[in-house]
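Write out the bound-state structure for S-adenosylmethionine.
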Amino acid sequence: MTLEARKIRLLMQLRRAGITDTAVLAAIERVPRERFVPPSFHDQAYENLALPIGLGQTISQPEVVALMTQALEATKQHTVLEVGTGSGYQAAVLSRVCRRVYTIERHAELLKQAEARFAELRLHNLTSRRGDGSRGWPESQSFDRIIVTCAAELTPEPLLEQLREGGCLILPVGGQGRTQELLRLRKTSAGIEREELGVVRFVPLVADGSERRSAG
Ligand code: SAM
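---
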C-alpha cells in the first residue's frame, strides 16, 4: 500500500474515532508525518501508532494529536504555546490551524531536527526554543491556548498564569506507570474549570533540576 493510501485509511480511522473538525482533519492531511519520523519508520508513518524519535522520546499517536488539537478549539486568530516539541509534528499540525505557534523542547538535539523540518516545510508562523516548558515561555506573554505533550504530576502553575482568560490548556496529568488523565482546563473569570477527556500515556515532563534531585 502506498503512503498516500495509508494516509487516507488513517483519516478514515480518525473520523471514526470522533474527529469531526474539518480544519484538524485538513491539517493532518497536509502535514507529511513521514518527514517527522526516522527513515526506518517511514512505512509506518500513517499507522495509528506512537513511534520512537530518539533520546527515549516519541512522536505521539496520530489519533492523540488529532484529539488534542480538536479539544484545543484553536482558530486562525489564536496564538498557541506547545510544551514538548519532540519531532515537531504536533507543532506543524497546529501551525495549520492557528495564527502563531510557540513551541519549547528540553532536548537540544530534538529541537534542532524539528527546526530543520519547519524550515524545509516553510512553516513560518512557528517560533521554537530550547528550555524547560514547565515555566512556560520565558518572556511570559499570554497565550490563547496551551498544549502540553508530556505528562506532569501536577499542572505547572506558570502555564495557568500565561493562559489568557477565556483560553484553555490541554495536558496529560499523572505519573509514569500510573494512569494519566488528559485534562482540559478552561480559565474563566470565576476560576479554572476542569474537564477529563480520557486516559492517555505520555513520556514524563522533566523540569530543570528534577533529574538532579531524584538522582541525589
Ligand atoms: N509533540 C511531540 C511531537 O509531535 O513529536 C511529541 C512530544 S514527546 C511525547 C514529549 C516531549 O516533551 C519530548 O520531546 C521531551 O523531551 C519533551 N519534554 C519533557 N519535559 C519537558 C520540559 N520540561 N520542557 C520542554 N520539553 C519537555
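---
The radius of gyration is 16 Å.
The mean pLDDT is 95.
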